[in-house]
Amino acid sequence: MKKTCKVVLAAVLFLSAIMVSRNMEARKYSNRAERIVAELHNPSSKYVLVAAHRGDWRNWPENSLPGFESAIEMGVDIIELDVHMTKDSVLVVCHDGTLDRTTSGKGRIIDHTLAEIKALHLRKGHGVIDDVNKVPTLEEALKLCKDRVVVNVDKGWNYYDQVLAISEKLGVTGQILIKGSASVEEVDKIMSAHDHNMMYMPVTNFDSKKGKALYAEYQSGNICPLAFEICWSKMRPDVASACSEVEEGHESKLWINSLWPSLNGGLDDDTAMKDPDAVYGKILKMGATIIQSDRPAFLISYLHKHHRHYSNR
């Protein structure tokens, strides 16, 4: 009985130490977004950052404010959203360059004013028009996410100056992530024009010569970005070697998409529903510490079981 009590007491003290440690860690940051940004800048951390592709689009219209809110509440670390410019030069959140698939309207976004787009309604995942939700502006989306989560503004590189201006206005520049396939020289040119920049990481698709050349450019120049996003349709030695180099270098994080099979050689979310170890387990073994998912809740649940993610961080 005494031995049992000692074991229980030791367990209690151990758990208390963990709670104290986490509370002390929490005091280092003023909000959750800061903690996530710190993880992004820590390539040796084994914590896996989860990015919700277009928000929680399985339960809400894609790229909608309620979809972003739902993803944040489920514990994701990064919200991925897409932007396009309206006729009157306002950045709105929409994946396509046209309104046809995701809204009640038709035509190109660039041919419509913000007022015209705001008169439309979003469509749900099965195409039915939503009576309530409308296309948000980038500013509205960033206000929702402020201090709560990192935001990956996809296609944001095309509008870098405009996105930066909005982020500076809202005071969220430090939690915005931009990705792109521009050369190192082009990235340096754009970012050196500003005193304060958003986070940036390269996208390297190994199915293209340009993608492989971009990765080689970073490696040959000993340039260590925040992270490398590596994409491939079929696993090959050069893909495996690149992933190993990023993981073993401990200088950049590795971003892998578990979206559709052509981005990951079949290591996709739908396949993971049948056998998560064969998909997510393999992605983790490859060294990924950022995973973009179309099933973020399922992925987070898997990571919790393997002590690689904590929604309350």
Q: Mean pLDDT score, rounded? A: 92
CATH class: Alpha Beta
Number of domains: 1
How does CATH name the architecture? Answer: Alpha-Beta Barrel
Question: What's the CATH superfamily, by name?
Answer: Phosphatidylinositol (PI) phosphodiesterase
SSE order: HHEHEEHHEHEHEHEHEHHEH
| Number of beta strands | 9
- The rounded Rg comes to 21 Å
* Helix count from the secondary structure assignment: 12
Q: Per the principal axes of the C-alpha atoms, what is the gross shape?
A: globular
Distance between the termini: 37 Å
The CATH topology corresponds to TIM Barrel
- SS-derived structural category: alpha/beta
Which parts are unreliable, with pLDDT below 50 for 5 consecutive residues or more? 1-24
Share of helix, binned:
25-40%
Give me the side-by-side strand order of the main sheet: 1-2-4-5-6-7-8-9
The main β sheet shows up as: 8 strands, parallel, barrel
Our estimate of the beta-strand percent is 15-25%
List the helices and strands and how they pair.
Elements: H1 2-26, H2 32-40, E1 49-53, H3 65-74, E2 78-85, E3 91-93, H4 114-118, H5 138-145, E4 150-154, H6 160-170, E5 176-180, H7 184-191, E6 199-205, H8 209-220, E7 227-231, H9 237-249, E8 253-257, H10 269-272, H11 276-285, E9 290-293, H12 296-305
Parallel strand pairs: 1-2, 1-9, 2-4, 4-5, 5-6, 6-7, 7-8, 8-9
Antiparallel strand pairs: 2-3
Highlighted features:
eight-stranded parallel β-barrel; disordered N terminus; TIM Barrel; alpha/beta; 40% helix; 313 residues; globular; single chain; 12 helices
